Amino acid sequence: MSQTHDQELTILLNALALACKATARACNKAGIADLFGLAGEVNSTGDDQKKLDVLSNDIFINALANCGACAVLVSEENEECIIVDQANAGRFCVAFDPLDGSSNIDCNVSTGTIFAVYEKKGAGPASAEDILRTGNDIVVAGYCMYGAATELVVTFKGKGVHGFTLDPSLGEFILTKADMKIPEGGGKKIYSCNEGNSSNWDEPIKKAVAAFKDPKKPYAARYVGSMVSDVHRTILYGGIYIYPADAKSKNGKLRVLYEGFPMAMIVEQAGGVASCGMFKGTIQRMLDIVPSDIHAKCPVILGAARDVNFVLDQYKA
Fold this sequence. Notes:
26% helix, 317 residues, 8-stranded mixed beta sheet, alpha+beta, 2 domains
C-alpha cells in the first residue's frame, strides 16, 4: 500500500483493511456471539437489518471517521451521508456497503464488503456533492469477501486488480493474486442472475438468458445471491453477472455508489465490460452515469465482453 506514494491514501486503505479484518472476525464468531438474526430495524433502502449489518456498519464508520483521511462517508445502512468533523477530516470520500449479501448470513453463505474511494472536489466544506459524481472519478475500488477464506480485492485506476488473502496466523493480508484478469475469450460459460424475477424482465434480457440456456450449448447457471461472491467468481472463471431492471424496480435494485460503481471499475480493470443495459432511454456504460442521490439505483450487467456484448446486442436488434 505504501507504493501509492500517498501517505493519506495509505492510511485510508489501512483503515479499510482493519475494518475488513474486524468484520471477518465478527462473521466467523456470529453463531457463538449470538450475532445471527434480525436487529429489528430497516436500513436506508427499506431492507431489514441483520445484527451483523449493524455491527459491520459501526466497525467501518468508526475506522474511517477516525483515521484522519476521510471527509464524507456514505453507507447503505445510513439514510444520510456522514460528514466527518473538520478537525479530523481528510481529503477522501468513501461509499461502502458494509455487509453485502447479509440475507445469507444465517445459513453461513459467503458475504462481503464493497467500497469506492473518491478524492474530495475542493478545499471548502465537505458535502454529498463531493461523492455524487460519475464512477470515472473513483480513485480506488474494492471488495472483501468473507467465506472459506477472507479475500480483499483492490484496484487503483490504471493499476490493475490485485487480490489479497487474510492470513489468520499473522493477522495480515498477503498478496495472492496479482493482476487479476477475466479469462481470455470470456472464460467459462456461466450466467448468474436471479431468475425468480424473470417474468418482470424486459424482452432483451429474457431473450439473452433464453439463449444462454439453449439446450445445444447451454451455459451453467450459478447464483449465490451475494454480489461480492457472484462477481468474484465471474472475474476468476468468466461469464456474466446480471441484475437488470424489471417491471417492479424500473431503475434496478442495486445501488450505484457502493455496489454498481466499485464493481464496474473492478471488472473493467480486469478486462471486462460493465453496463446498465437500457437505462433511462439509452444503453449506458455504468461508470458514465451520474447518481441523483446517495442511494440511487441502477441495473447491472457485467462480466466478460463476450457475454455482456451479447446481452447489449439484444437491445440493438
